[in-house]
Records
---
Amino acid sequence: MDVKDGKTVKGVNFVNFRDAGDPVELGQEYSRQGADELVYLDITASYEGRKTFTELVRKVAAQVNIPFTVGGGIDELCDVERLLNAGADKVSVNSAALRNPQLIEAIAANFGSQVCVVAIDARFEDGTWRCYRSGGHVPTERELFSWAKEAQERGAGEILFTSMTHDGVKDGYANDALAVLHDTLSIPVIASGGAGSKEHFRDAFLLGKADAALAASVFHFGEIPIPELKNYLTKEGICVRI
């Protein structure tokens, strides 16, 4: 769930956002439907220089009974401690890790690798996957696969890869890139960006070799019920938690 000004929003290619509802209520509904985990990203925190809303995390923790990750504006250990104390299970770092890769090591050393999710927003341009920071606003010199490998070596417990090229387009995940990540890394890879049908989830697992698949708009706007999706994936031979 992308959160902006306390509301869940969804855009296309990281722009043109529309309101998708209350993040706590949506979290409760997805938990009821059988989602395995939730990810809350304060998408303008880094760009605007703010901190993730701790109060929202407390509300989610009080109302939702499945694990959830929180990201946005996390750039020092006290931010991680504050969010974990508020009830988050994991934290996601992106911009701060690109600026200061040692942050990954510090989080892993102080709280364990299982807490540290490194989110990578990348766009395919000029024949390569360029990493972006600050909510997709600022390009960097980092390349997806080498940065993911470095993040793992520094202690990341998971990689959350969002294809900015595929985000909100609903034409399928970046399966070729996901497969390379799977073959490069030994930690779980979460696919994000591009889900539009149940088949897209299947392909992310079978072709992209992803360990998990994250989606937003197909759930926010009732296009694919989670129980229906899980039943479909089970019939396709993919092991999911029912």
---
Amino acid sequence: MKKFLIKIAIFTLLSILILSTGLFLPQTPRAAQSYLYSNILKDSLLANVDSPRMIFIGGSNISFGLNSQMIKDSLNVNPINTGISVHIGLKFTFDNVLPYIRKGDIIIAPLEYEHLTHKYISGNEVLLRMVMDVNWDYLHLLNFRQIFTLLPYIPKYCISKLNPRSYFNVEIDPIYDRNSFNRYGDECAHWNIENRSFVPSDRLDDFNQKIIEKIKDFEKNVTEKGAKLYLAYPPYLDKSFHKSEDIIATIQTELKKNFKVLGTPERYMMPDSLMFDSSYHPNKKGVDIRTARLIEDIRNAKVQ
């Protein structure tokens, strides 16, 4: 029994040593090229772009789904596309943008439907990589719940940094590369590439009523800074939309009841031919259609 316990202790200590080594190693060449690094560009835009400003927040439906040049030309504002990924969580999405908001800013938030369920409030492995690989300063934005949520992802993250394939013969998808974004923060590398095959999203989880209070808190902070918040809807593959029509209808009702909302969910439902590689990522034609509809909804709502 004593020998067994000694072996367990040695195994535990070795595991802790290996994981600790992986945790504090510099980011790998693979991680250094990640699209998550675009958040450095987006933070810089938030800090330096002049007013009048229109700031778009959300997940990849924004990063992949907006033509900011159209926004600038049509509305005479300076657009900032802060979208990265739904997986970093709604709380980080709000908290990262909030310090940069200025008086007179217009905030447009077409949130992914998963932002409005229980699924992506605190983030997942992608948020861990945002903090550990991109900028340790983001750690101060995390609360206890987020940190607790990220703990199970740490072993996998540490092991990935010990994998030789993360250092040698690294192949990066040019669509998900840190250099695939234009000067507004739009992911534009996919604009001239043929659609990729993908599996439509499954049925959504039920609407999370607690999200309303989180958005209200964010809206309150935005208003105190002299800015305005408008919610909107993401582009969404029609096949995925129809799987969750009742849940999306509930989301629409709750958002309309509590916030200023642009357009309707159906208006941004899109066929296969307009989607690039996921239920939320339009191709270039889809991007322009989505952007044109958003511009029209902004004008109809007399956003100012």
---
Amino acid sequence: MKLGNTILREQPLFLAPMEDITDPSFRYVCKMFGADFMYTEFISSDGLIRDGRSSVKKLDLFDYERPIGIQLYGHITDSMVEAAIRAEEAGPDVIDLNFGCPVRKIAARGAGAGMLQNIPLMIEMTSAIVRAVKIPVTVKTRLGWDDNTKIIREVAERLQDVGISGLTIHGRTRAQLYRGEADWTLIGEVKNNPRIKIPIIGNGDVNGPERARQMFEKYGVDAIMIGRATFGKPWIFRDIRHYLDTGELLPEPGVEEKADLALLHLDKSLEHKEGKAAILEMRRHLSNYFKGLPGFKETRLRLLTSLDVCEIREIIAEIREKWGSFRGGDLTGIYGI
């Protein structure tokens, strides 16, 4: 598959851009397990052009992450163009435009999925950004605003016509948020439209190897993007790739392997953020790494309330000792990073 100037393997797997999730530490572990293409957390165009500290920090990229995209959102064309130029200076492989975030505070002001209520502005903004930057521009969006406006087939053609290099489609409307089952039927229709020449990346409810293969085979998408299913489970990329290549399902990692990974992830988070901020953002990952352990409630509570790094390490060591034996080998050398 070719995305702009980037050549990817057949049936590549993408890590979705997610606020407070796809920071450098999580991208590190997802890349370690074979994510083919990753994105930063989405960045506010207004925050970026005003040099907001958190927005500028999200531009930090690392060579081992490549290929990687920076995703922007906003509702004002001039601001989005200026932000795209600024983001291009950080050296990403693509600029991605977020026309799909359903969060009310974003969509209500016309950004993210709010753009699905103003298609002329979406097309105008995309065209202006394509003209303003030298690197490929991609888009991520949804089927439509609600069940009465599933306009993705028309939108895909119009976005392609103004020069985007790839399109990711989440198989829900904005009104659905993340409820119900993602509908891949329209994603498949876009992909199989003879007018569409750009790569189509499917997104929504890919939660394991068998589901991933089904989406590739049934709908013919060029790539799959995985979001919520990666929470506390970055090895999903390894599992899917192995299944696509061999037809074999890999066993769940052992508790000791998960403990080693949690410590590695924590160390990486501490490299990029101050102690308290690193711990707070790690909590959702730590909770999910050990999800499902019997009799884990009390230990989980301690893990998710401590603000002391040493104590968290001790709790993870306790989990390793109490709940399981290692299998899977040393994680840190698997992909040479």
